[in-house]
Amino acid sequence: MAKQKLTRISITVPEDTLEALDQMIIQQGFDSRSQALVDMINHRLVEQQAVTNAVMAGTLTLLYDRNFTNIRLQVADLQHEYLEQVISSLTVQLDQNKILEVMLLQGVSSDLQQISQQFIAIKGVVKGHLELMEAVMPPLQQNQ
């Protein structure tokens, strides 16, 4: 892959903002201010793509309690309902009661947000988070 061309820019920020940025760089392990700023800019660009209803890939991470009646069946049924958007999933039993499930999704961003909310709203889901990416997976081969 060819190396991307880089362009230098200059910005002016308040001193306390720069101090907070430098602290964040240390805490999050960025190599430089440039790397941290590019990461923040890319996050905002992805947010903008989500607003414009672009087709995007993403992950939905769920943490749920296996003791809730039929929760695994409810998750599986919802995945089946959205078979075109839910590309793959990984389920891990974390302890006696907690299950972590990560789903790979692709589709129009507003659809993915709506679908994710349905998963997160299932009774017994402790936490859920959708992370959208500015990329699209190549088409999957379909059996003819």
TrEMBL record:
Transcription factor NikR nickel binding C-terminal domain segment(s): 57-132
Keyword Metal-binding in annotation: yes
Entries under Pfam families matching the protein: NikR_C, RHH_1
Cofactor(s) needed for function: Ni(2+)
GO biological process terms, semicolon-separated: response to nickel cation
Residues annotated as domain Ribbon-helix-helix protein CopG: 8-47
Sample GO molecular function, one term: nickel cation binding
Keywords from the UniProt entry: DNA-binding, Metal-binding, Nickel, Transcription, Transcription regulation
Superkingdom: Bacteria
Function: Transcriptional regulator.
Stored PANTHER family: NICKEL-RESPONSIVE REGULATOR (PTHR34719)
Family: Belongs to the transcriptional regulatory CopG/NikR family.
HAMAP family: NikR
Protein name, entry field: Putative nickel-responsive regulator
